[in-house]
Amino acid sequence: MNLQGKRIVLGVSGGIAAYKSADLASRLVKAGALVDVVMTPAAVQFVAPLTFQALTGRPVRVDMFAPDEDIAISHVALGQSADLMIIAPATANTIAKLAHGMADNLLTTTALAARCPILLAPAMEMHMWQNPATQANMALLRERGMYVIGPAEGRLASGGFGLGRMVEPPEILEEARRIIGLKGDLAGRRLLVTAGGTREALDPVRFIGNRSSGKMGYALAAAARDRGGQVVLVSGPTWLECPRGVERVLVESAQEMYEAVVHWAPGCEALVMSAAVADYRPKVRQEQKIKKTAGELVLELERTPDILGEVARRREEWGALAVLVGFAAETQQVEEYAREKLLRKGLDLIVANDVTAPDSGFEVDTNRVILISRAGSQALPLMTKEEVAHRIWDFVRDQLQASVQGRR
Ligand code: CTP
Questions:
Q1: Average pLDDT of the chain, as a whole number
Q2: Candidates 3.40.1710.10, 3.90.1150.10, 3.40.50.1950, 1.20.120.1760; correct CATH number of 7-180?
Q3: Residue 399 to residues 94, 265, 392: CA-CA distances in angstroms?
Q4: For 64-89, how does the pLDDT look when each residue is reduced to its tens digit (9 = 90+)?
Q5: Residue 407 predicted with pLDDT over 70
Q6: What does the pLDDT read at residue 356?
Q7: What is the Cα–Cα distance from 107 to 124, expressed in whole angstroms?
Q8: Active site includes 210?
Q9: Which residue of 45, 81, 210, 225 could cross-link 197, Cys pair, CB 3.0 to 4.6 Å?
Q10: How far does the centroid of ligand 1 lie from the alpha carbon of residue 323, in Å?
């Protein structure tokens, strides 16, 4: 969402990975960015400029001395008006030129004149990558503040296997979001998010779990990262990938989640508990697999620690933790039950949803929630979990600003 309306220069240099940059261009455009593609003459050997032009809906620049090009404008203005320049793939040759300030084609010239952050996605044959010359060039570029993603390990065009593949476009897109986000309204804020469901073991092979997928918590973590937040994500088991730039702590049981939250919360300014924490766990965890018998099996359950309750009790002592957000998954009297939880647990905000609705709650990408604070409540329309996440962070941002003013 933070790429909406942003100007991105995509520099494509001449390697086989250039074909993947077409996908990257398409993803950037879909994310709402205005994408200007600059190709080196070598890149044109791999992918036609027309491909990028069709994907971005904008002219593609290759030739610095084309008669219809306003030289002064194109090489200076492109990099200067951009929010981010991505060079993908960045070949060994282009990297060498960048490291030494050369400007012999439109891509290197644009990079030299650019005032925005530059992200490099190197791609080359593995021995070229390992070569001390390339490594020294990379060290120089990193030292000067260029961002680098990859290369990844895998099968290379040369037939070999090793480090040298360009990182896949979805990951480059995420890194672009992270870099753009560094100037966001949560810049530097230390934020703790919990996600997913917990598993309470019955024996070595079975557990009591719930239907939480973790999607809401992961959307919260990615959205905060996109706005510059430093996010720690305490997550129950899930197949979701950790958003780039987010520190993930994997846990299984409610007890482990409790310990992780109590460990990280004192250093954070806000906690958003979107995890579906088990309220009960088996009183005894059997060391060996439980064998079936002819009769019924009765399980005895005991309460798990109330994580939010404990954090709310200790927040004064921890000082920095200014905002506490909880979730309430309800099946009836949603607002009433949720407001009662807000007050009982000492929270600043509770995000209530009716998990019986088919388009809201577990395992889906959308949510229909009510944001309830002490000041009042706001029923939001059906929206993506990403949009819900941004609304929650809007609240957290305002509360953090208010708490600073309150302390003054
Ligand atoms: N939560 C928690 N620790 C627990 C259980 C829940 O911190 N042991 C948090 C959840 O992450 C969520 C909030 O408390 O943010 C509300 O959880 P929920 O289970 O809906 O509320 P309860 O107070 O347990 O009420 P009930 O089960 O009666 O609905």
A1: 93
A2: 3.40.50.1950
A3: 46, 17, 11
A4: 777 665 655 666 788 888 999 999 99
A5: no
A6: 82
A7: 18
A8: yes
A9: 210
A10: 17
